[in-house]
Every structure is written in structure tokens, then in C-alpha cells.
Amino acid sequence: MNLVLMGLPGAGKGTQADLIIKDFNIPHISTGDIFRAAIKNQTEMGKKAKSYIDAGNLVPDEVVNGIVAERLAQDDTTKGFMLDGFPRNLVQAKALNKMLEDDGRQLDAVINIHVAPDVLVDRLSARFMCKNCGASYNRLYHKPKVEGTCDVCGGHEFFQRDDDKPATVKNRLDVNIKLNTPLVDFYKNQGILHNINGEQSIEDVYKDVREVLVNL
Ligand code: AMP
User: Fold this and answer.
1) Could you give the domains of the chain?
2) How far apart are CA 36 and CA 22, in angstroms?
3) What is the residue-level pLDDT of the chain in tens, covering all 216 positions?
């Protein structure tokens, strides 16, 4: 099962991604996670990506396409994969089709989780993470059970990702919205786009996602 999970930043891609990979046992390939790991490890690629990410801009296509091509060449993707955060524009989408085609593969479905932009600004600016283990929380929807203590590791220090700060969030959304529409049309024309209402509970969103995937 070769999937792309789409949705603007904050639409709940990460949460749905976790549910999908556990349920269907396929690797989760998140370009955002790959960049964050590279920045943490201070690799050359991480240093290059950091300036773009901190400003709420997209990393250049040739950098992202190269990273995805390397990842899709790994053996664990032969039985299927789920891309999250990639492609973000038509250049990347076409590059992905070519990569797969050259390898005798193709996409089976694109899951697009839709949430209205004003809801996304509120959601994203409210997001914060545990400094120790990276667990993700949200002041609006998902606070730690005990205030100031991480549910996962018991840590007490939290931080907000630079790209979740309000000024950056608006820029990040604007950049993504502009690019998102042609991408949605591209996959719609290919007949593999599935729109999901992301303004429901996590469980109900997943129910709709699962319904699509079991019927592929
Ligand atoms: P995400 O966690 O998917 O929101 O990604 C965080 C940041 O990484 C984005 O705001 C971009 O700067 C960068 N990024 C992730 N995926 C891509 C991509 N496919 N193309 C360009 N930049 C990306």
C-alpha cells in the first residue's frame, strides 16, 4: 500500500499517520521529522534546512526530492509506505511519480485531511512539546494530564517549535495553501485523491481514513 498523507500543517497528519502505520504496518516517512533529526544532529543537510524551516519557508525541492528518493530506495518500503509532508508542491509530486515509475511502483491513494485555515492558526500556535522526549501537546486540545509534567516521560521542561510560533505559523500556512490547491487537483485528476473531514474527533477522522484504506 503506497500512500501519501496530505493536509495543511496542523491538520492532524502526524496523529493519523501513527494510527495508519500501526494498523497497516508500513513505514512512516515524514520529511519534517527527517529535517528535525538532521538539525538536531547538526548534519550538513540539517544546517542547510534550518534557515528555511525557522523562517516558515519550504526547503528547496532538489534537497527534499533527494532525501525522499534515498529513503524510498530502502528495503522496508517495498511492501508499502506512507509519505507525510511530502510532496508539498507539483514539482515534488511529479518527481515522486517518476521515482516510483522508474522502480515499477505507483501511488495507491492520497489521503487529504481537510481543516479550515482559521482553525489551523489556532491549533498550531497552541502546540508545544516535551524537551526531553519530544511528545507533542496542545493548549486547546491535548494538555498533559498533570500540568507541567509530560505524560510520556515525566519531564518538566517544554518548548514551542520555532515554526509553531504565531508569526511563523501564518507565513507557513500561506506558503502551504498557495501550493496545496494545484497538488490536490493533480491527484484528483489521477483519480487517487480521498478527501477526509479533519474537523472531527481523532477517532472519527481515523474511521473515515480506515474506510478508504481497507477498500483500496
Ligand atoms: P512539517 O513537520 O511537515 O510541517 O515540516 C516542517 C518544515 O520542514 C516545513 O515547514 C518545511 O520548512 C520543511 N519541509 C518538510 N517537508 C517539506 C517538503 N516536502 N518540501 C519542502 N519543505 C519541507
Assistant:
1) 2-116+169-214 (3.40.50.300)
2) 22
3) 999 999 988 898 888 999 999 999 999 999 999 999 999 999 998 998 999 988 878 899 999 999 999 999 999 999 999 999 899 899 999 999 999 999 999 999 999 999 998 899 888 899 899 999 999 999 988 899 999 999 999 999 999 988 788 888 888 888 888 888 899 999 999 999 999 999 999 999 999 999 999 999
Residue type, 211: E
Reported pTM: 0.83
The one-character DSSP state at 106 is: -
| For the CA of 176, the nearest atom of ligand 1 | 10
- 13 among known catalytic residues: yes
Residue with cell 522526549: 133
Contact 110, 119 (CB under 8 A): no
Grid cell, residue 152, equals: 510520556
Cβ 33 vs Cβ 161: under 8 Å: no
Active site residue 161: yes
Count of residues for the chain? 216
Find out whether the beta carbon of 2 lies less than 6 Å from any atom of ligand 1: no
Which of 131, 143, 161, 210 is labelled catalytic?
Answer: 161
Q: What is the DSSP string of 80-98?
A: -EEEES---SHHHHHHHHH
* Helices vs strands, H then E, count in the chain: 8, 8
